[in-house]
Structures are given as structure tokens and as C-alpha cells.
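User: You have something folded?
Assistant:
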Amino acid sequence: MQKISAIGFDMDYTLSEYIPQSFETLAYEGAVQKLVTHLGYPPELLEIPYDHTKFVRGLVIDKPRGNIIKMDRHKYVKIAYHGSRKLTEVERKTIYDPNNTTWDSFTGSGYAVVDTLFSLPDAFLFSTIVDFKDSNPERLPKSYEEIFKDVRTSVDLCHRDGVIKDKVALDPAKYIHKDEHLKGTLDMWRESGRKMFLLTNSLYDFTKVVMNYVYGPAWQDVFDIIIVGACKPAFLTDTNLPIYRVKGEDGSLANTEGPMFGEASSYLEEGKIFQGGHWKHLHNLLGVSSGSRILYVGDHMYSDILRSKRQLGWRTMLVIPELEHQINVMLQETGHFEKLEELRCLRDELDGWVYTLEQAAADIQRKQGGDTLTEEDELEEAWAEQKRIRATLREETRAYHMKFHPQWGQLFKTGYQNSRFALQVENYACLYSSRVSNFRHLSVEMNFRCMSDVMPHDRISENPVTRFLLRRGRDK
């Protein structure tokens, strides 16, 4: 932290943690109403209640097929649903196994990533309509891809036309979890002497409502620069975007080009609230020449973290509210995890023993051409035990994952592998935490050191092949 001279924050789901039961329901119900009223969707959709627990971040929506999938870090699809129906292993592999189909990078226009909590209503609504279309094809002749486009348009419009934000403004406590430690955490960073900025896609009127609630009436005092309506990720990539000064009294806009002449400090005395612009405006206002001097805290993997890290070299911190649940379950299920580790070791030992018996039987057959019934009997027993342990391990692994989420399992894992979401966290988030206020427990000058990277050969004593070879050497 000693090399960081400026700390920036997104607002939605970063400084402001929305209550999913109420906030996401606003987006879902508003979008359904638009689909039925304006786009001719069946009115029965209005009767389906929203379930905020059904989907998680890190999933990918396969628009043309009407599927929602979860991948591991190698982009192998491990879980797939068509609407609300889970695809069988045969169905999943027929569609997505690269051994059976052309390899797909899952990055084209036919896919949408659920990389922010704002996207969870999209996933639920899309899967709901896919189910309805499959049951009533004559009443909904649109393709799955057209349905997703309508869903995305309707949800997005709810965020812009007041369906969501007007209700939040009337009763913030119903929709926003107020973190009692947030104000003290921001004040602590402010008092460290670093420049502070707010960079949010929300417009000024909504920003004012939310920040008044989560911080207090003096929220503007904690920031040196406030940029609303930022249009991330374009803010981080397009240097042709115009910037406007926001007049704090009424929220009206005035043209400006940034500090063309003189010092940025003099320019900011005329007003520190802006709308739009791009990263060069921000760097000039902050007086930083290198992106590595900035720490930006946000919740959106693509718009906040990936682009700022990859394009500008900003230091990044990803806010993952779900992390608390993941850790709590992991701690509660320590015994279950240890059982899985024991089963994996036993499976590896059995694999090695089966290989030894197969080789022994083959050697006897080749050298003597004689009877190998004893070896064959032992091999049959080993095969049966191997099959039993593998089945047990599969079932126990599934049961362990279901403790985290009944459909999608552990957020950061897919089977034994890190999930695609976990890979992105590793690659693009310098730090991650469940909430901003967790950092109140740490010094503002703390050095955050990375953990040692470990490859399979670095863990040679734990490698199943190594264990097998060592045992084989002892047997000889």
C-alpha cells in the first residue's frame, strides 16, 4: 500500500451492498412487466415469483441453445442447465465436449457472462422463459437468442427509467444493507493522506441518494474527485469520451475539458463532481503518471477489474459478497473435505496397485505362458474396489459441492479444478474481499504479499505418480 497514492471506488455492490431479496426482485418484476406489456410475452410470466438463490456469479449464458453453463479454468463445461432442467452427462458432452464438438472459446456474441450480481435477474428470467417456450412453443415462437435480447433490454431499461432507482430512493433501508463500519474505513483511508475518488456508472441523483444512506450527508468530503455516469468499461478504454462538470446544487451539467491550463488543484476548487470522461481525465486530476499508483475497488469483474488491470495497470480489489458464505461453509465442512482428500489418496493408491497387478499378470503371461488365475483373481478384486472408490468419491464430491449451492456448487471450484470465475479472480484481482469495511482491521500501510505459486512438480511428495513410484521401488 505504500506505493499507492490514490484509492478509487465503484459504488453499486461495492460501497453499497444491495439486499438481493428486495433489490433484485425490483429488476425482475419490472422486466417481466415490460416483456408482457410492450413485447407481447405471455401474461403467465407475471405469476412466476423471483428466486434470488437460484443462480450465482461466474456462469455463462449460451444464448442460441437456451442453456446456462459453468466451466472450469480450462473452459471445460462441467455443469449445464437448459432452462431449469439439468442436462445429463451425455447431453452435456454431446454439446460441449471438445472431443465430440469443435472447440469453443465461449467469448462470442452468442454468450453472455454472469460476471456481476446485477446479472442474476437476467439469468433467472431467461431460464424461466426458456421453460415456458419449451412447454408452449406455439405461444412463444421467438428463438432463445431473441428471448435473451429482450430480457437484457428489459432489465437494462429498468435500471434507467426509474423502475428500480425511484423505489430505492423512497426507501433505501429496504433495498440497501447499511454497513456500520464503512464510514470509518473510508475515513481511515482518507486520513492516510491518499487521494480518494468515486468512479461509478450511476448518475448523480442516484449516487447522492445511495451515498447519503451508506456514508452520511458529508459523503462528498471524503472524496477528492467524484465521477458519475462513467460508462465503464468505455471510461477505461475510449479516450474520446467527453467530460462534464456536475453542479452539486441541482445536478445540471456544464461543459469542461479538464485542467487544460494550470494546476489540477485550482481546477478542482471550481467543483470536483463530474460526469463521463475517460481515464486520462482522471489521471490528470489525480496527478498520477502510472496506473500502478492507483488502487481501484469494484465488484464487476469485466467493467471494474479486468479492464482497469489489463488496459491501465491499475491495482485492483474485487468485492465478492458471496465470499463470506463460501468460507463459512468451507469451515463447517472441514471434516467432509478431509474425507474427500483421503478418498483421493485411496483412489490414487488403488490406481497404482491395479497397474502393478496388470503388469505382473502380463509379465507372467509373457514369460511363462502359464496359468495366471491367482493374479487375475486379485486383479478382479482390485478392479471392483477401484470402481467402488471412484463412485464413492464422485458422490462425496457432489455432496460436498451441494453444501455451497444446490445447483452450481462451490463458487470458486468446478469439481477439483478452479472455476472460470476463480481463474479470473486470480488473474485480475490483486486483492479480493467480501466487503470494503474488512480492511478496517489492517494498517493503511500494510504490504500485501502474494502467495507462492505452486505447480504440480513443486508438490512432488503429494503427487500420486510419485507415491506410486516410491511404493513400487520399495516393493522391488
